[in-house]
Amino acid sequence: MSLDVTQYTLLPQRWFDDFRMGERFPGHSHTVTEAHFAAFRGMTGDNHPIHYDIEYCKAKGHRGLLAHGLQVLAYTAAGAGLFPTVSGDALVAFIDISAKFLKGVFPGDTLYPMLEITELTVQRSTGIVGMRSTLHNQEGVLVLEGVHRYLLKKRP
């Protein structure tokens, strides 16, 4: 028996029409380390001392190195959860993002991402799925909140 790889899926295909307000898509938790800071600094070239000089951070009143904002935002990536798996062929594009950084993130913090559908805008052959994105740390403190918006195809 042969395998048709185009029909191989982890979860059933869903289209724009199948999503509902309030649906939640948790992401995997992440414990942030200094190695993550170094990798992000290397990738972006962001060499502000707040991200690598512990004495500088202490002088500014921080308990440790402060994570890069865009690094923290990256932990809300939908691709790290089930949303792109269930939307599969319906997913056309990631169309915009916004975020508010509410608290600092430091090495040793564990982050818990969540996406929750807050917008379903119907268009002709597509729809926009808007999601509230949140990141809480291990103490239950909200460190980031924002919005992701995706363009999805309607059921053919």
Shape: elongated
**Overall helicity:** 10-25%
How would you spell out the order of helices and strands?
EEHHHHEEEE
CATH superfamily: Hotdog Thioesterase
Number of helices: 4
Strand content: 25-35%
The pLDDT mean sits at 94
CATH topology: Thiol Ester Dehydrase, Chain A
Low-confidence stretches: none
How many whole angstroms does the radius of gyration measure?
18 Å
For the sheet with most strands, the description reads: 6 strands, antiparallel
Cα(first) to Cα(last) distance is 29 Å
CATH structural architecture: Roll
Tell me, what is the CATH class?
Answer: Alpha Beta
Tally of DSSP β-strands: 6
How many structural domains in the coordinates?
1
Structural class: alpha+beta
Summarize the structure.
With about 160 residues, the protein is of the alpha+beta class. It has four helices and six strands. β4 and β5 form a beta hairpin.
Key traits:
156 residues, alpha+beta, Thiol Ester Dehydrase, Chain A, six-stranded antiparallel β-sheet, 6 strands, 18% helix
